[in-house]
Amino acid sequence: KPPTEQKDWHDKIKAVDHVMKDIGGVVTRVGDETIGEMWSLTDGRDVLAEIDPRFAANIDHHIRAVIEKDIFHVSANTDPKGDRSLPPQQQDPDLMVHVTRETDAGIIIRGAKYETAAAYADQAYLKPTVGAWANEKLSDYAVGCIVKMGAPGVKHICRGGFAGRNSPDDYPLANRFDEVEALVVFDDVLIPWEDVFFYRHTRAAQFVRSTLHRYSAFPYVLRLLYTADMMIGAAMWNAKQTGLDKLQSVKEKLADLVCYREGINAHLTASIAMAEKSSGGLLMPQQSMLYAGRVFACSQLPAMMHIARELCGGQICITPNANAFEAEGSGKWLNKFYSLNDEWQADDRRKLLAFARDLLNSDYAGHRLTFVQFAQAPHFNHLAAVYNNFDFSGPLDFVKKSAGLSDRIDGKTA
Predict the structure, then answer these.
(1) What pLDDT digit, counting tens, does each position of 336-352 carry?
(2) Are both 143 and 278 inside the same structural domain?
(3) One-character DSSP codes across 123-162
(4) Domain that holds residue 90
(5) How large a percentage of the chain has pLDDT more than 70?
(6) Which residue from 24, 62, 267, 371 has the fewest beta carbons nearer than 10 Å?
(7) Residue (of 78, 108, 123) closest to 96 by Cα position
(8) Contact, 309 vs 280, CB < 8 A?
(9) Are 225 and 95 contained in the same domain?
């Protein structure tokens, strides 16, 4: 449901909370996050219609479709790109998605995109990565459209998954919550005219990129709240089972994790409390607050993972796998040395250490950390979004008055 009031956002938060607690983990690309791009398209409808009125009705149709049909919708953003110092026309043109020709039925596109969850999605909203070609007024690389993931010519080349590599007893998160990425190849794929949102106009492409995450950043950052909770829980249980939770130094590190968690929560809460009506009539999270929260949550995650790793201790990297605890020879020794007292027996300790290892130390943990840093653009783009959405007039006026500066500095008559 497109958000039109604060209750809609609170309902979305409750829905995500229910899912995460029900499944016992964190999943990102399940449709509610990427669908926010369609709400951004709602806001941009009139601008896009002004640039090229042919496709305005298509926007209305597809927004109704995702509301009424519960379509699993993902995002097609990142091209292979190739040599980024060169415009696409000076290298293999297929390294960025482009239109090769028009037909009566629609446009033909060629290229590729990296997409998460594409192999099990219904459709993707394809839009360009703005590059050197954007200096032109018209370009075959400026295309935005819906691509059906099972359409002829769409090929999915998936990365290797983490599930099944090792026992779920040893890697409980990797085996349950891996969300597979793919290089999705568009080998002369027909996009019907009714699925096109903009075509050839670089101004339209730049507008779409500038507003793309105004809604979808919220559920993206919300996921990191649950990642923070998992780190706090894993670290706290590890400290409690060894009795180290009573040490002031341990309490301070746990408090650092709590501050990270509450910082994320504060940005999310404030962005809804200060929400603004968008040009399309939707309730938009306060943009500079939301984007600042995204910077905070993503940029501080590596340091918070290190704190959690310190609190969990070195045993997360040296504890044997579950089958060793059950084996006839090694089992009795492992159960002896991993049992602490009546409350903390070897089985629970092993499970906790395996969980912490998969959360903080495994291949899956490294993958998730990298995903967070790039899934909604890299860090410099996050900072650019903050800069472009923050209202600098308040600080400027405050200092101008406090310092007694003249009106000349802002072009006004003294």
Answers:
(1) 999 999 999 999 999 99
(2) no
(3) EEEE-PPP-GGGGSSEEEEEEEEEEETTSTTEEEEEPPPS
(4) 34-210
(5) 98
(6) 24
(7) 78
(8) no
(9) no
Q: What is the DSSP track for 290-302?
A: HHHHHHHHHHHHH
Same-domain status, 41 and 179: yes
Does residue 8 belong to any structural domain of this protein?
A: no
Domain boundary among the residues 187, 210, 233 is at: 210
Q: What pLDDT score does 398 carry?
A: 98
For the entire predicted model, the pTM comes to 0.94
Residue 230's CATH number: 1.20.140.10
244 and 338 together in one domain: yes
Helix (H) or strand (E) holding 16: helix 6-23
Residue 185 is which amino acid? Answer: V
Residues 91 and 228 in one domain: no
Say how far apart CA 43 and CA 157 lie, in whole Å: 33
Whether residue 204 is found in the same domain as residue 278: no
Task: For residue 198, tell me if it sits in a domain.
Answer: yes
- Please state, rounded to an integer, the average pLDDT across all residues of the chain: 94
Number of domains in the chain: 2
Element containing residue 109 per DSSP (H, E): strand 106-116
Which are the contacts of 111, defined by CB distance < 8 A and separation ≥ 6?
79, 94, 95, 96, 97, 98, 185, 186
> How many C-beta neighbours within 10 Å does residue 391 have?
9
What is the Cα–Cα distance from 360 to 134, expressed in whole angstroms? 40
Alpha-carbon distance of 367 to 178, in angstroms, equals 10
- Name 243's Cβ contacts closer than 8 Å, sequence gap at least 6: none
What pLDDT, in 10s, does the model give residues 233-248?
Answer: 999 999 999 999 999 9
Dig out the tokens for 290 from the structure: 């939301």
Same domain assignment for residues 162 and 283:
no
